[in-house]
Amino acid sequence: RRGSTQQPHPVGESHKKMSERKIRGLMNEIEKLREKVEKERFKYVKVSESLVAADNQLKLKDKWALSAEAACYQLHLELTVPLETVLLQSDVPVELLEADSNVAIVSMTPQEEGSTGLLATYRCQEVTNRLELHVRTSEGRYGQLQAFVWPRVQPKTCCAASYAIKPLSLHTRLLDSTDERDLPTVNTLKISGSFTLAEVHSWVVACLPEVPARLQSDEGNFAFRNTFLNTLLLCNYRKGEASFRSDSLTSLAIIKEVLTKEATARKIKIQISVDVKDETVVNLLTRLDPLLNYQLSLNNKVKLIDSLKEVRMQENDVSFLAPEYLEILEKEELIKKELKEQPGRLQFLHGIIADLFVDKFKFKGQNVANLVPQLHTELSRNYSLEGLLAFFNQSR
User: Fold this and answer.
1) How far from 85 is each of 56, 88, 91, 107, 150, CA to CA, in Å?
2) What percent of the chain has pLDDT over 90?
3) pLDDT at residue 40 greater than cutoff 90
4) N or C terminus of the chain: which is more exposed, having fewer CB within 10 Å?
């Protein structure tokens, strides 16, 4: 009715108040349950601080693959939840390289005397579900790399994975056929014996990456390229005989070592013959020369940076410095960054040369391991290609 004032219905008001009381009661119960859950969670965390939960529902997505362009392995680790810590453990020497996409802080654990492996921890400071690690292996040193991944969850749990580091780990398979006329000068390793095709193929699989588990014919024929040195390796084998050709003596020495070990383990007698071309040693050292010179120059520049910065602080004008010193000051950050990305590159190159030196004389039946320290001195103090070639050509 027009002009009348409507009063609230007493029954509706009472119902509204009852609903509000019920809601407040439910909210109180929820809060008490939340507090109880937090208390129980805290108790569980305290109990399991030194334990790892046995039931792991997380699935680790991982990929371990050789990057032919970077001549190193890329390890991709990913979970559906944020990562907290990744631990890498290797029983053979490997080098961890700097990755631009890496958002983790790495810390290396010193190894016990006599150990040649690696133990490193990556701690993720930012929230991320994936991590990309770059690992450079040293050929001839083979074993396993293990990754342990802890997600940022409670209770603590861990995902683990293992990756094979093969003896010729830096070789990638070439799918295109190689014309014999285009081959460089190569050394040849021939092996014969009472082995089957399946046996010799399993030895090649154990030695090299990217080899199929089974052959589709009665002969194995593969070509590989060393991604760091760009050397070639040709493998041809069938029942009872195998031939390996390469312009790297070290590659053949590694194959000889692995196949001999495998044949001995199966009590199979084999005969080995080697045709060594000294020219291949000279060619490989010549190929390594610019890499060595560049790395030595980079190391020397880093050593000069602090001294040059001190001169700049004391002198208002440093234009009197030689142009190469001014360039070092100008490119200080770039030089440091490059060395940080490849911290063990010079040592890695020295290792390749030392292996080549030992292998050259080993194929001649001579042990020159006692001369390796002298070789490292030659490389570190007064390196020159001429001096290195003279050291390699010394008669024994």
Assistant:
1) 16, 10, 20, 11, 5
2) 50
3) no
4) N
Distance of CA 125 to the CA centre of its chain: 22
**Cβ partners under 8 Å of residue 108, min gap 6:** 96, 118, 119, 120
Residue type, 270: I
1: pLDDT confidence band, cut at 50, 70 and 90? very low
Q: What is the per-residue DSSP string for 206-265?
A: HHSSS--SS-SSSSEEEEEEETTT--EEEEEEETTEEEEEES-HHHHHHHHHHHHHHHHH
CA dihedral 170, 176, 178, 184 (to 10 degrees): -40
Q: Which of 135, 121, 201 is nearest to 165 (CA)?
A: 135
Yes or no: say if 358 and 368 are a contact pair by the CB < 8 Å rule: yes
Give the number of other Cβ atoms within 10 Å of residue 73's Cβ: 22
DSSP helix/strand/coil, 156: coil
Q: Which of 206, 236, 204, 232 is nearest to 220 (CA)?
A: 236
Contacts of 274 (CB under 8 A, 6+ apart): 187, 188, 189, 190, 252, 256, 363
- Residue 281 burial (C-beta neighbours within 10 Å; 0-12, 13-18, 19+): buried
- Decide if 257 contacts 247 (C-beta within 8 A): no
Predicted pLDDT of residue 100:
63
166-197 b/e (C-beta count within 10 Å ≥ 16 → b):
bbbbbbbbeeeeeeeeeeeebbebebebebeb
